[in-house]
Amino acid sequence: MTTSLKGILCMCMGVLFLALGDAVSKWLGEVHSPLQIIFFRTLVSLPLIALLAHFAGGLRKLRTKRPRVHLLRGLIYTATMVCFVLGLTLLPLAEATAIAFVAPLFVTLLSVPLLGERIDPPVLIASLVGFVGVLIVVRPSGDAFQLGALALVGAALFYALMMITARRYGGREHLWAMLFYMTCVPLVVTGLTLPWVWQTPQPWHWVGFLASGVLGVAATAFITLAFRFTPAAIAAPFDYTAMLWAVLLGWWFWGELPDLWVWVGSALIMASGLAIAYHDRRTTLKRRPTA
Fold it and tell me: What does residue 258 show for φ and ψ, rounded to 5 degrees?
C-alpha cells in the first residue's frame, strides 16, 4: 500500500468517526443539554489525549510557555462545540454537515485581516461560490433559517478562528499540547454549568457519552495520521465523504432525507472547497524550487 493511499484511508476513517460522533451527539441532544454532552465528551477525551501524547513521545510534549494562547483557543473551541451540538439537535444531520462545510471558506477569508495573507482572485471567486451554496442550504427566507442554522454558521466561524490561531502558533507548540489544553477549557467551563443543565442519564446514555469522547479522539488521531502520510491537498478533499455518512446515518436513525436544495448547496460548497485545495496545490508546486 502506497503512502498516499494510507493517508486517504486514514482521512476517510477519521471522517467516519467524526460523523458517528456527530450522530451520537444528536441522539444525546434529544434529552441532554449541549453543555452536558460536551462535558462528558471532553471528560472522556482528555485522558485519551494524554495517553496518546505519552506514546507519541512522552508527557513532556504537554509542556507549554503560552497558557494564554491555550486559554483563548480553549474558549473558542468551547463556543464551537456549543454552537455545533446545538445545531445538530435542531437540524437534520445532513443539513447540519453541509452548513459546517463552510468553515474552510471562513479560514480563507479571515486569513487576510488576521494573518495578513493575500487571496488570489480564483480563491476569492471560489469562496463566494461556497457562500452561495451555504445560502441555498440555509435559505434565509425558508423554514431552515432558524436557530439551528445560525448556530451552525456560528460554529463554522468559531472553528475558523481556531484554525487561524493554530496556523499562527502551531509551529511553536506541539500538536498534543494544543489538543490537551484546548480540551481542558471546555471541560472546566461546561462542568461549571452542570448544576443548571443536569439531566440524569439513562444507562444507554452513559454508553453514548463514552462513545462520543472515544470517537472524537479516534477521529483526531486518524486525521492527524492522514496529513502525515499524504499532502494536505490530496487528503483534505476526502473530508467531504462526511456528507455521505451524514445522509446514511440521518436516514437510518431519524428517517431524514435531504431535499434537492440541500444537495445543490452542498455541491457548490464542496466544489468551492475542492477548487481552493487545487489552487493551493498548484501555487505550492509553482513556488517549489527546481533543481
Answer: -65, 145
